[in-house]
Design a protein that fits this description.
It is a single chain. The chain has 11 helices and 39 strands. The chain is elongated. Strand 2 and strand 3 (30-31) form a beta hairpin. Helix 7 (180-188) packs across helix 8 (201-211). It has 2 domains: 3-224, Spore Coat Polysaccharide Biosynthesis Protein SpsA, Chain A, CATH 3.90.550; 254-438, Hexapeptide repeat proteins (UDP N-Acetylglucosamine Acyltransferase, domain 1, 3 Solenoid). The N and C termini lie far apart (97 Å). By secondary structure, the protein is an alpha/beta fold. The structure holds uridine-diphosphate-N-acetylglucosamine and calcium ion. Residues 8-11, 50, 80, 83-86, 88-89, 109-111, 141-142, 155, 157, 171-174, 200-202, 226 line the site of uridine-diphosphate-N-acetylglucosamine.
């Protein structure tokens, strides 16, 4: 019984006032369409996304998500051409669904991101269901009429509805599970004889309902809310934040100020993680037990071990941090940074494509790019790995138990052997063997009384001018 999903995403999304297609606007860091696709249960064998405006961007995003392994099933796209209504949008998928051997169609909107996976799974397992909601203010939606036994009788769009029908508060949520054969028959005989001159999917749904009963299932309006404007996006983000944060707090995570903390849908937190206010964790982030994330940190696509302390205002992306490490405040770990267990990276330290092995330290004001720092080695304040010669990047390899004094530069490619010591203020341009002491020093000049004499000279000069 292959159930194939159809995701409607061809609409322009004019009210977003954007060059980005509506379905690619993010909620907690993940685009709306990705939320929808990730909600599909494994029982769905494939999904057909109907695209048109911003097609290249949507297809580009789909390819990227596929490569990152974020999609639960094979996805293909169909270009609707000029969008002529929701019914037309499903009509253009007929060939694709037939090819996929669909027996049931699960129809969702690409701009309705917060349907719970459990709701979608229930829908996907049903023969004929329409999701509806009861709204205080039903304006704009299609009104749902039911038979005495509750089955769907009719759906009347707002613009086609009499004042009497407009008083109905039960509205169509725009998500359906329908037998494909019956739906296909209904789709091919659709007309656009209505106030908007559109081909309404709802007319096809009602026609299917004349063959097989369609249950009207009530759903939480928050799950069915669509994103049509930037204001909707803000409301959806707040709803998503409450949902995600509430779940993590129930699972034993402390969020000191959940209203200002953004935790994306692909973040995994463990028990006794503590997140301070205004932190933002998005993308694929995993945080192990007992770790503390400081105020104002921005963390994207990272794996963070247990009992790590990330102090305030760090920016960390595509990095790994091992158990018991201490980072920040104000550290910047860029892509490919690997901090093994018990590493310390302190304030105003930037790392990129760099591994710090167990117990290594770089505590103050340094840049470590394309570098490797051995176990227990200490990098002094003001260190710079000069990794770029204007054309190519080169690596800096620092052995175990090395001591690099303050204010040193290593001009890559360069290697420091185990147990080497580099004197403060040195510029190292060639390899240093194990156990060696290396330093570059201009001779020190001390002139007794020189400061007083210089001041006198300068004062006299000022008085003359
Ligand atoms: C639709 C329903 C309405 C329901 C509401 C719920 C119809 C006729 N009406 O109305 O009963 O209450 O959803 O939100 O179906 N789309 C396309 N191609 C098109 C037209 C739309 O892909 O030609 C996509 C849109 O991008 C959007 C979705 O379909 O994701 C819904 O379209 P929209 O125009 O918003 O439908 P409504 O008029 O709101
Ligand atoms: Ca709509």
């Amino acid at each position: 019984m292959p159930t194939v999903a159809v995701i409607l995403a061809a609409g322009l999304g004019k009210r977003m006032q954007s060059t980005l297609p509506k379905v690619l606007h993010p909620i907690l860091g993940d685009p709306a369409l990705l939320w929808v696709l990730r909600s599909l249960p494994t029982s769905v064998s494939a999904a057909v996304v109907v695209v048109h405006s911003g097609k290249e961007q949507v297809e580009g995003a789909l390819t990227q998500w596929q490569q990152e392994g974020l999609l639960p099933c094979p996805i293909l796209t169909v270009d609707q051409g000029e969008p002529l209504g929701t019914g037309h949008a499903v009509q253009v998928t007929i060939a694709a669904l037939d090819r996929l051997g669909a027996t049931r169609a699960l129809i969702l909107c690409g701009d309705v991101p917060l349907l719970e996976p459990a709701t979608v799974a229930r829908l996907a397992a049903s023969e004929g269901v329409l999701l509806a909601m009861d709204l205080e203010d039903p304006a704009g939606y299609g009104r749902v009429l039911q038979h005495p036994d509750g089955a769907l009788k009719d759906i009347i769009e707002q613009k086609d509805a009499s004042a009497e029908l407009r008083a109905i508060r039960r509205v169509n949520g725009g998500a359906y599970a329908l037998p494909w054969k019956a739906l296909k028959l209904a789709l091919v005989s659709l007309s656009n004889d209505n106030s908007q001159g559109e081909f309404y999917l709802t007319d096809a749904v009602v026609a299917v309902g004349r063959q097989v009963p369609i249950a009207v299932e009530l759903c939480d309006p928050a799950e069915l809310m669509g994103m049509n404007s930037r204001k909707d996006q803000a409301i959806l983000q707040a709803l998503a934040r409450n949902r995600v944060n509430g779940r993590w707090m129930d699972a034993g995570v402390t969020l000191l100020d959940p209203d200002t903390t953004r935790v994306g849908p692909r973040v995994q937190l463990s028990m006794d993680v503590l997140v301070e206010p205004v932190a933002c964790l998005e993308g694929a982030v995993t945080v192990a037990a007992g770790t503390r994330i400081g105020q104002g940190c921005v963390i994207r696509d990272c794996t963070i071990g247990p009992d790590v302390e990330i102090r305030a205002y760090c920016v960390i992306q595509r990095s790994e941090i091992g158990a018991g490490a201490k980072v920040g405040p104000f550290a910047h770990l860029r892509e490919g940074s690997i901090l093994r267990a018990k590493v310390h990276v302190g304030n105003f330290v930037e790392t990129k494509q760099t591994t710090l092995h167990v117990g290594a330290k770089a505590n103050h004001l340094s840049y470590l790019g394309d570098a490797e720092v051995g176990e227990r080695s200490n990098i002094g304040a003001g260190f710079i790995s000069c990794n770029y010669d204007g054309f190519n990047k080169h690596r800096t390899i620092i052995g175990k138990d090395v001591f690099v004094g303050s204010d040193c530069q290593l001009v890559a490619p360069v290697t420091l052997g185990d147990n080497a010591i580099i004197g403060a203020g040195s510029t190292i341009t060639q390899d240093v063997p194990p156990d060696a002491l290396a330093l570059t020093r201009a001779p020190l000049v001390v002139k007794e009384g020189g400061a007083a004499r210089l001041r006198e000279k300068l004062r006299a000069k000022r008085e003359k001018s």
